[in-house]
Amino acid sequence: MSTILAIDYGTKYLGLALGLSGGVNSPLKAVSYHATQEAVELLRETCNQYEVNQIILGLPLRNDREETQARQVKIFGKLLEDKLGLPIDYVDETLTSADAVKTTVALGIPRGKRRGKQHMFAAVSLLRRYRVKLEFIP
């Protein structure tokens, strides 16, 4: 069985979602962290617990301002690849945060509790995009 971990990477939060066989995409959790090593260890535990064999990261591609953020994501991805030994792929994260906001509002999540949850739902959007990419790009 193939399990994909989608990560909406931020400098304070990680939004996580699981992509399971059969096309099931499931929000997992949003976690805050203070140091990169803390984030790596948290992801190692998550990957072991859910038997993850592929990681995808959202990559900001919209404008020049996000070029620095894209570099940070790629550095983080390389670190994960080295430390966890899992393949990393990248997906354009344009508007995934907006999708996540709509989802949290539609679910009736109170404004004060949305922030972390939005990262988790953005990770679900990344999974959807990744699966479409796999389906249509040889």
- What is the level 1 CATH name? Alpha Beta
CATH architecture term = 2-Layer Sandwich
- Number of separate helices: 4
- How would a textbook summarize the main sheet? 5 strands, mixed
Provide the structure class.
alpha/beta
User: Could you give the order of the helices and strands?
Assistant: EEEHEHEHH
Uncertain ranges: none
CATH fold field value: Nucleotidyltransferase, domain 5
Strand order of the largest sheet: 3-2-1-4-5
Tell me, what's the shape?
A: globular
The total strand number stands at: 5
Report the span from N to C terminus: 21 Å
What share of the residues does DSSP label as strand, in percent?
15-25%
Q: How many domains make up the coordinates?
A: 1
Which whole number gives the mean pLDDT? 82
Estimated helix fraction: 40-55%
**Rg from Cα:** 14 Å
Q: Give the CATH H-level superfamily.
A: YqgF/RNase H-like domain
Structure notes:
With 138 residues, the chain is α/β, with parallel strands linked by helices. Helices cover 48% and strands 25% of the residues. It is built from 4 helices and 5 strands. Helix 3 crosses helix 4. Strands 3-2-1-4-5 form a 5-stranded mixed sheet, with helices on both faces.
Spell out the key features of this protein.
alpha/beta, Nucleotidyltransferase, domain 5, 138 residues, globular
What's this entry about, in short?
The chain is 48% helix and 25% strand.
